[in-house]
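User: Predict Glycosyl hydrolase family 18 (Putative chitinase)'s structure from this.
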Amino acid sequence: MKKQFHTLRQTAVMLTVAASILFAASCQKEKDNNIGALKGAAADVLKPAGAKTVTKSGGISVCYVEVNSNSLLNTGKYTLTKGGQQLFDIAIIFAANINYNTTTHTAVLYNNPNVSNVLANKATQIVPLQNKGMKVLLSILGNHQGAGICNFTSRAAAKAFAKQLSDTATFYGLDGIDFDDEYADYGNNGTTQPNDSSFVMLIDELRKVMPSKIISFYYYGPAASRLSWGGKKVGDFANYSWNAIYGTYSVPNVAGLAKSNLGPAAVDIQSTGQSTANSLATQTKNNGYGVYLWYNLTSTDKHTYFSGVSNILYGSGVTYTP
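Assistant:
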């Protein structure tokens, strides 16, 4: 599944809207403290054992990479000219899918050959980025089969899929999971439509089995309006959420997440102009938000483009090292 659909969706939206824990924790307080620490200090969240310490101020930069056609390693080629820190703090593998097993009537995690190649070659595709102080996440989205993050009908089903995600993150040494509620085509194969409990149950169960890793939400789709249920909310368990419409500034409405964990600015590296990207960075900084989202990094040297934003957010230009 290519994220080129995002560009198509973005174009359609812009045309029409041009004129929007430990799972065995001994007590709840300990669990809450763990999540609070993850959300409260980006530098700590972004500091893996044995890797460089991330010390830059000005928030974090997150970048999606279409691994069907581009190398994830491209994210590690950009550093701040002053200080040498990595421009991108989080690199996201786009994308794994939620498939639907019509025999067992269950959601199944699926990695296409290109995603599988990145994961299987983690020593050369993932670890080098982590050794630079970066985090690597796996994005999860639908695959037109009717299964998605919004139509689990029981906690047991949500828990089973959360275990698939956690097992994958652990086995491949990933730093977390990103959720993107697109292309599920809810209703296909006799599946149910989105419900209010599904995403909250899923992210609750994932946090239990993935207490120290990052959970992020690409703010889009049915899930964006189903963020609370049963006295719990997605913001209780997630670390970050960011705007999904490239070239725009829109604050994700995720209760429980502080400004430092929200990204209202989103750019498509290949289509968002420099002046727009700079303006979004200025708004992000002036309004006190802590995340800037980039999408569609290729092998082309874009350090001049990145420098426009980086000078605003971090007070430094960007150096490209092939």
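Residues 60-320 form a domain with the TIM Barrel fold (CATH 3.20.20.80).
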